[in-house]
Amino acid sequence: GMDGKLDESSARLLLDSAPSKVISNEMTVQVKCSLAYMDFEGRSDGRSVKSVIAHVAPLKLVLVHGSAEATEHLKMHCAKNSDLHVYAPQIEETIDVTSDLCAYKV
Predict the structure, then answer these.
(1) Alpha-carbon distance 68 to 79, whole Å?
(2) Do residues 71 and 93 lie in contact, with contact meaning Cβ atoms separated by under 8 Å?
(3) Is 80 in contact with 53 (CB distance < 8 Å)?
(4) How many C-beta atoms surround the C-beta of residue 5 within 10 A?
(5) Gap between the Cα atoms of 19 and 71, Å rounded
(6) Which site among 3, 21, 44, 95 is 20 to 30 Å from 84 CA-CA?
């Protein structure tokens, strides 16, 4: 207040807020991950593609180079697994498949 004393809510705010300091560092880190690319060259039927996807169990899947109907069918099939994120970009469409699954705050 005007008399130099803190009211209860202001005092509680001061007590509850821990001192903090933001430090930003730039560093190079070694990325350890794997990327699976399977080139089927149009020789696989829907059943075998679904079987491979089930065995690989990816977290993210990008569908490219299929007919619109086949791509949509496979996308809907994969959507049954709520843990799998399926992307089916249009021709010339750019997508962002970055992930924050292993982002750490220190």
Answers:
(1) 16
(2) no
(3) no
(4) 8
(5) 53
(6) 44
> How do the domains of the chain map onto residue ranges?
8-87
pTM of the model: 0.50
In angstroms, what CA-CA distances link 80 with 8, 43, 44?
53, 25, 21
Report, in angstroms and rounded to the nearest whole number, the Rg of the chain calculated over CA atoms.
25
Rounded Cα distance between 57 and 54, Å, is: 5
Q: How many CB atoms lie within 10 A of CB 9?
A: 8
Cα torsion 95, 98, 99, 100: sign? negative
Q: 24-60, pLDDT tens digit by residue?
A: 888 888 888 777 676 666 667 778 888 888 888 888 8
Q: How confident is the model at residue 64 (pLDDT cuts 50, 70, 90)?
A: confident
- Phi, psi (5° rounding) for residue 83? -85, -10
Check if the beta carbon of residue 54 is closer than 8 Å to that of residue 46: no
Specify the length of the chain in residues.
Answer: 106
